[in-house]
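Example record used in the benchmark description.
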Amino acid sequence: MATIRKPAVSDLFYPADPDRLRGMVSGYLDSVAPEGVPPKALIAPHAGYIYSGPIAASVYARLVSTRHQIDRVVLLGPSHRVPFYGLAVSEADCFRTPLGDIPLDRQAVQALEDLPQVIHLEAAHVNEHSLEVQLPFLQLVLSEFELIPLVVGDATGEEVAEVLARVWGGAETLIVISSDLSHYHDYLTAQRMDQATSEAIITLHAEALGFDDACGRIPVQGLLLEAKRLGLQGELVDLRNSGDTAGSKDQVVGYGAYAFCEPVAA
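Model output (structure tokens):
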């Protein structure tokens, strides 16, 4: 019998009803013109959909033209609930959302197990929202795909980059990093902070990211290190905060969407 990681934040971060969920995500995606080169890697936010869904959609829409080419997604996000060292893999066979089950690439997961920073810790996955909220977007913009989910705890950017290098793959593999930006500053302060963070991200300066700049700082740093090593180019696709979408401007959370593409040959 298959082991299934069940949804933890449906009806909290997004609708549990499949039709409502499909309609909400499709609405976000349909409101975006899918311009730009399809990314090899992307960064998308992970808050409740009414807050961050439009920003996430802005980068996911770019995958539409390659939806049948991508059959594997490497998904990393920060741990919000369970403290641990390293990167946690799951022993589940599938991750479930209201839109259906996503099989894990068990062979790829097993290929990471000899790395000292990779651990088995199911507790890191059970209630973690940073990975879960990305899945309905992936289910609607891609065809069938397998998932390599990793929750990132106390680790270094270099350790994350080493893991990414193992599963980077080719055009069939998409890298997704789940991260919000600054938390609970006033609107103007958050704008200044998030603009500086975005500049560091698109110029691949991993060392410039501080503790308060992004809750997914460590997986973002790992992506930037590997993207720089491979010569990818970063692009800011969208930058807003909860004060722009569905919250007050007294204390906001920042959301950025970023695309990383291989350089176009001259």
